[in-house]
């Protein structure tokens, strides 16, 4: 342990991988700093309607993890925080963390009086912009930490003072400033996850201009009870129930012009979402347009189960073009049935694009050099001595794989600070 | 029905320029992306599949390669970089060699050495003929009419036209037989004749091309096509103002006019004479078109220009040289520089004739027949099937009426 100045571990990213890494390391007895960019923990899993393949709500799993953090004084959570710089070597890293102001302090009880007083609304990032939320808001119902946030646009507005005065607990600090925190850590777990591939680049699918062409992550919000429609799957253009829903696979994946790799989860995610549609609309026609169905091991059982639905059409062929009727906002998918060589133009009411997983590190790399693969994923879990990549930072993965990967990274991080 | 598989087809197609077809994973994006692809004639993926599987006969029966105008949007949007547009181009080359019963085309496409030697051989032969049959070289006055009188050139033109037509038409007949199969005789003649105007229309306008996303290629092709057609009419059909051999000619339309006995020089039309203006149009149109295509291929500026086979270069280079030597002859005659003009005129024909003789029946230029024919036969088939459908719809109605 000659070079180890500290045995603290920093975990960057509070999604499924980072949460798991942080909790496992802390429960093994190590001090952990968990740095999260959002004002809440849980990442993209918190935005799901149902876990796969058990089809249960994600909140129960997250709740258990939040409980474990609450009970463990070894975990220190920084939200609205980003790592600015990393200097030093394994066992002795100096890290600077920038923390954006929340404008709400720990006195907040989440009573909601500030939101009541606020009239300013912002696009709701939790629902991928499908609705708006008050500029004084709780990120979502089960947000952890359970504390409101003020959007900077509200703080600068004339309404700010009124909102502050509405708080009965003196929890709002309009003069809260950005601050930096210097940490000394022995090892680092990087788990900044992924973002859905930008649909504005998919000009053949409308590039985001067609209201009834949504992405798979938006579909999760649309189907969720706490989503923009309280769980009702409807067309964003007119709120009508769709008669025909198309799932378009590999939207920007397995494509040299976009993400060249397979994200691995979208096939089953779309089939899971097909069950959301079927539950609400027993008579709806559902198209599943695919190149190949990538279902490994027992996941094939799920595919077979869904296939039994005779109004769910497994259509082998990649949709090349989607056109919109400007009056009705209904859509037509132009696609070749590659089994029969027939060309089809299929009218549908709602399209769900299975956009792939783009690694966050492809746009926001680590502030210290580590090797990446050609797609921007960190090349391996052992990124550099003392720095470990977990979950979708290093490869596309589902939730269960992320939990396992976070745990593995925690062990590596512990070994890194202990074994010398 | 048995299906024959040729396991060496992909290897063979490589000689025709095939590169990336094996990368295709059959998502169908290209076929659905293509603005020309239709339910009855879907392409290009189907053809890529045939190639990968070695289904030679299926390709031979397909007319789809001739329905594709290679705008390149399928290649640009291919998720695998399998370049389906290029595969269609390769299949057009391969099909041209298959339709040709002499086997010459295959050699021309698969061996650059053979290709070069063939062009050189024809060029030398033409040069020799020009020297042998030259009448009078007037070294004071540059006169084409004295050296090679139009009446004699007309006979040479007719012989060449007969040979070329024989080879091209026999190859076209094979194309029709392969692509129509049993339907050829099943479809009533009435439908063939009623659609005949489409054949002419497609030949003259390539109107399907207008449906492509990038129309520049169509415009460039129209320039080359109209330019060349104009030039062909002037120098071949109207050289003597028609068929002088049988007296069917009009001196007013004569492209190569008799020389003036007083000056000893060729009589040239005034600048604004329609025949001379048409000549200028042809020159400029081909020059722009061929230069654009050559420049594009050199810079690989877009999908259809990214991969160039030896025969693509040969065709464009010969075309460009034909125009340049033609311009030189024109200028040298106006400047009255006899030796250089005679030499350039021989060179002009040493370029133009091999291009015609080799490319029209056996290579790239054969598309002038296959493309309009494919579009026409597609229309014939569609009309035939539509009539069958209509009959089927009527038949039960009649049966019902009888029962009543």
TrEMBL record, chain A:
SUPFAM superfamilies from the entry?
FAD/NAD(P)-binding domain
Q: Which InterPro entries match?
A: 4Fe4S_Fe-S-bd (IPR017896), FAD/NAD-bd_sf (IPR036188), HdrA-like (IPR039650)
Q: Where is the 4Fe-4S ferredoxin-type domain?
A: 99-128
Keywords per UniProt: 4Fe-4S, Iron, Iron-sulfur, Metal-binding, Oxidoreductase
Q: Pfam families attached here?
A: FAD_oxidored (PF12831)
GO MF terms listed in the record are: 4 iron, 4 sulfur cluster binding; metal ion binding; oxidoreductase activity
Report the PANTHER family cross-referenced here: COB--COM HETERODISULFIDE REDUCTASE IRON-SULFUR SUBUNIT A (PTHR43498:SF1), FERREDOXIN:COB-COM HETERODISULFIDE REDUCTASE SUBUNIT A (PTHR43498)
What is this protein called in UniProt?
Putative adenylylsulfate reductase-associated electron transfer protein QmoA
UniProtKB/TrEMBL annotation, chain B:
Q: Which InterPro entries match?
A: 4Fe4S_Fe-S-bd, 4Fe4S_Fe_S_CS, HdrC_iron-sulfur_subunit, Helical_ferredxn, NarG-like_sf
Q: Where are the transmembrane segments?
A: 116-135, 155-176, 218-246, 278-295, 315-333, 339-363
Q: What is this protein called?
A: Quinone-modifying oxidoreductase subunit QmoC
User: Can you name one GO molecular function term for this protein?
Assistant: metal ion binding
The record places domain 4Fe-4S ferredoxin-type at 14-45
This protein's UniProt keywords: 4Fe-4S, Iron, Iron-sulfur, Membrane, Metal-binding, Oxidoreductase, Transmembrane, Transmembrane helix
Q: Does the keyword Oxidoreductase apply?
A: yes
């Amino acid at each position: 342990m000659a070079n180890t100045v500290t045995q603290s571990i920093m975990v960057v990213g509070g999604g499924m991988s980072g949460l798991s890494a942080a909790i496992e390391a802390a429960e093994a007895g190590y001090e952990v700093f968990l740095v999260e960019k959002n004002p809440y923990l849980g990442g993209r899993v918190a935005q799901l309607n149902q876990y796969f393949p058990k089809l249960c709500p994600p909140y129960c799993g997250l709740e258990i993890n939040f409980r474990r953090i609450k009970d463990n004084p070894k975990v220190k959570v920084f939200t609205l925080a980003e790592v600015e710089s990393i200097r030093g070597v394994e066992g002795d890293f100096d890290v600077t963390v920038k923390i954006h102001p929340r404008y709400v302090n720990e006195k907040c009880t989440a009573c909601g009086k500030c939101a009541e007083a606020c009239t300013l609304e912002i696009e709701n990032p939790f629902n991928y912009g499908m609705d708006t939320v008050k500029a004084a808001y709780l990120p979502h119902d089960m947000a952890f930490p359970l504390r409101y946030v003020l959007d900077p646009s509200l703080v600068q507005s004339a309404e700010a003072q009124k909102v502050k005065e509405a708080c009965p607990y003196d929890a709002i600090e309009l003069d809260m400033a950005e601050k930096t925190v210097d940490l000394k850590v022995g090892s680092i777990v990087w788990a900044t996850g992924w973002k859905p591939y930008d649909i504005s680049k998919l000009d053949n699918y409308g590039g985001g201009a067609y209201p009834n062409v949504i992405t798979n992550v938006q579909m999760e919000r649309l189907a969720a009870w706490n989503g923009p429609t309280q769980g009702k799957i409807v067309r964003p253009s007119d709120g009508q129930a769709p008669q025909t829903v198309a799932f378009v696979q590999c939207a920007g994946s397995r494509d040299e012009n976009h993400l060249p790799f397979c994200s691995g989860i979208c096939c089953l995610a779309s089939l899971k979402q097909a069950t959301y549609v079927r539950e609400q609309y027993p008579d709806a026609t559902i198209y599943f347009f695919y190149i190949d169905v990538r279902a490994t091991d027992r996941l094939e059982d799920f595919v077979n189960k869904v296939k039994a639905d005779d109004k769910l059409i497994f259509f082998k062929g990649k949709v090349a073009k989607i056109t919109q009727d400007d009056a009705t906002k209904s859509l037509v998918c132009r696609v070749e049935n590659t089994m029969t060589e027939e060309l089809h133009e299929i009218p549908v009411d709602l399209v769900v694009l299975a956009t792939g997983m783009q690694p966050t590190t492809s746009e926001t790399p680590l502030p210290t050099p580590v090797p990446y693969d050609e797609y921007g994923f960190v090349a391996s879990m052992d990124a550099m001595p003392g720095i470990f990549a977990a979950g979708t930072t290093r490869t596309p993965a589902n939730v269960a794989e992320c939990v396992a990967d976070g745990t593995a990274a925690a062990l590596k991080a512990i070994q890194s600070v202990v074994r010398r | 029905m048995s299906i024959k598989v040729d396991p060496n087809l992909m290897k063979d197609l490589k000689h025709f320029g095939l590169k990336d077809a094996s990368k295709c994973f059959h998502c169908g994006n290209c076929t659905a992306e293509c603005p020309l692809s239709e339910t009855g004639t879907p392409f290009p993926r189907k053809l890529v599949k045939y190639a990968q599987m070695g289904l030679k006969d299926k390709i031979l029966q397909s007319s789809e390669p001739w329905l594709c105008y290679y705008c390149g949007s399928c290649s640009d949007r291919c998720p695998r970089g399998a370049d389906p547009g290029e595969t269609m181009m390769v299949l057009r080359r391969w099909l041209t060699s298959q339709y040709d019963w002499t086997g010459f085309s295959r050699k021309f496409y698969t061996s650059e050495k053979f290709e070069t030697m063939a062009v050189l051989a024809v060029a030398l032969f033409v040069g020799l003929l020009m020297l042998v049959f030259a009448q009078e070289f007037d070294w004071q006055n540059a006169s084409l009419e004295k050296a090679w009188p139009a009446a004699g050139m007309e006979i040479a033109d007719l012989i060449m036209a007969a040979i070329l037509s024989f080879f091209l038409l026999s190859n076209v007949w094979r194309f029709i037989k392969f692509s129509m199969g049993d339907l050829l005789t099943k479809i009533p003649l009435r439908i063939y004749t009623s659609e005949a105007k489409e054949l002419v229309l497609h030949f003259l306008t390539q109107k399907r091309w207008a449906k492509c996303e990038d129309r520049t290629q169509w415009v460039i092709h129209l320039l080359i096509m109209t330019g060349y057609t104009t030039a062909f009419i002037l120098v071949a059909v109207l050289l003597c103002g028609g068929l002088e051999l049988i007296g069917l000619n009009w001196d007013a339309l004569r492209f190569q006019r008799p020389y003036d006995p007083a000056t000893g020089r060729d009589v040239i039309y005034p600048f604004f004479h329609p025949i001379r203006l048409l000549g200028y149009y042809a020159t400029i149109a081909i020059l722009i078109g061929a230069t654009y295509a050559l420049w594009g291929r050199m810079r690989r500026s877009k999908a259809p220009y990214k991969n160039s086979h030896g025969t693509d270069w040969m065709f464009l280079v010969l075309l460009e040289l034909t125009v340049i030597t033609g311009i030189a002859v024109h200028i040298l005659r106006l400047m009255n520089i006899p030796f250089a003009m005679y030499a350039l005129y021989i060179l002009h024909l040493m370029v133009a004739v091999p291009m015609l003789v080799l490319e029209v029946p056996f290579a790239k230029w054969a598309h002038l027949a296959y493309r309009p024919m494919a579009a026409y036969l597609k229309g014939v088939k569609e009309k035939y099937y539509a009539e069958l459908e209509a009959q089927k719809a009527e038949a039960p109605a009649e049966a019902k009426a009888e029962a009543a």
